[in-house]
Structures are given as structure tokens and as C-alpha cells.
Amino acid sequence: MNNFFVALRFLTILPIGPKQEAAKEDFGKSLIFFIPVGAIIGLFLASLVFLFGGLPQPVAAALIMIASIILTGGIHLDGFADTCDGLCGFTSREKALEIMRDSRIGAMGTAGMAALLLFKFSLLANMPRETLWKSLILMAAFARWAQVLACCSSKYAREDGKAKWFIEGASQKEALSGGLFTLALFILLMNVEGIGLFLILTFLAFLFISWINKKLGGMTGDTIGATSELSEALALFLILVFARI
């Protein structure tokens, strides 16, 4: 149970669980709880669909996005922006890692984050209402599965950093159990179509992870965050496509 609280406190701002500092090995073990925590995040966001049901959908979409950023502390958005700054230019591996460690956000990071948020908003604002609540659960759960996949299939690209503890402590058990749990959610909420949707999203996430590994020789906390953010956007996009079809 302690590992569950490690995952919950890392992925959200909720100060729940033991107050003592987690041991390094607990971070890797907590990966098995990333998808359940993602599902909890998704359930909270899904509840807002019904809470804001009387509002115009664009307004509800904006409020849901704000709630998501507050609940997660914007940790993955920050990683996405840093990844855009580091990799959206013709730089060496060493220079890219140096840029990504800089706490200041650059032009590419600002543009990338604005484009991502606009894309997500447009998807939520145009999602059929009967599908919207399901898409939020699947989006949040799949994004955390993508993080687990990134940790289990990569080396750590730096010498030190908290993400190192997740990557070095990851095992195939977390990848397999996380994938099965996520797949079960997709089937539960999307029926047989959920299988195809899950497989397509996993393939796309793995392509991005492989590209990062090729560029940097491994993953960092920032690129894991970027993987999560892109996975959320792709999940919403494909769910919208499937719903329209």
C-alpha cells in the first residue's frame, strides 16, 4: 500500500499517505500503481462532466483542463515544454540535455505547450457528450501506462535525477500488469473497439519512446512527462475519431 501512495503523491498534488520520505527502491515498485492512480484521476475528471453538464461544452472543457492541471501540478506539462525546447532544434545530445535541465522555458517550449493545450481543448470541446466522460478516464489511464512503458523500455539518459529511480527500479512485471489493466479499461468502456484503440495508441507511444531513446540514449523525467502529455492528446484524438466513425 505504501507504493500506491508513492504513485499517488508523485502523480498528483494530493498529500495523502505516509509522510516519511520514500526509499529509492519504492519508486520503481510504485509503477505498478500508476495506471490505477491514472484511472482515479480520470474518474475525478469524468465526474466534472456531470457537474458541469449544464454549461456549454467549450466552457466545461476549459474547466476540466484547468482541474487536470491543478490536480497533477502541471508536472507533465513542464516536462513537455522542456522536451520541446531541447529536441525541437538541431542540437547535440549533450546540448539538448543541458537545455532541458534549464528551469526557464524557451520559445519552442512555449509554442509547443500552447499548441498542445489548444489541441486538447478542441478535442474535449467537440467530443460527443456520451463519450466525453469515458475519454477522460481512458486518457488519464493510458497516459500513465505510457509512462510505465517508457520506464520499462529505456535507460536513464542522465547521471542523476529522480526519474532514474523509476527507470532503474522498473521491471517487466509493471509493464505487463499495467498493460493488461489499461487494456481491460479500454474494453470495459469502448467494447471490442477498445482493443484496436489500445493497440494503436501503444504502438504510437512506443514509436515516440524509441525516437527519444535514439536521440538522447534514454529517457529523462522531462521526456517521460512529454510521453504522458502526447499520449493524452493522442488518446483523445483517436477516441474522437472512433466516436465519429
Brief write-up:
By secondary structure, the chain is mostly helical.
Descriptive notes:
By secondary structure, the protein is mostly helical. The protein has one domain (31-244). The chain has 12 helices and no strands. The N and C termini lie far apart (41 Å).
Name its key features.
12 helices, 0% strand, mainly alpha, single chain, 245 residues, globular
What gap, in angstroms, lies between the N and C termini? 41 Å
Strand content: under 5%
> Strand-and-helix sequence, N→C?
HHHHHHHHHHHH
Helix-residue proportion = over 70%
Which blocks of ≥5 consecutive residues have pLDDT under 50?
A: none
Q: Provide the residue-averaged pLDDT.
A: 88
Net shape: globular
Task: Give a short account of the largest sheet.
Answer: none
What is the number of E strands?
A: 0
Total helical segments: 12
- Number of discrete domains: 1
Radius of gyration: 17 Å
Structural class by sheet pairing and helices: mainly alpha
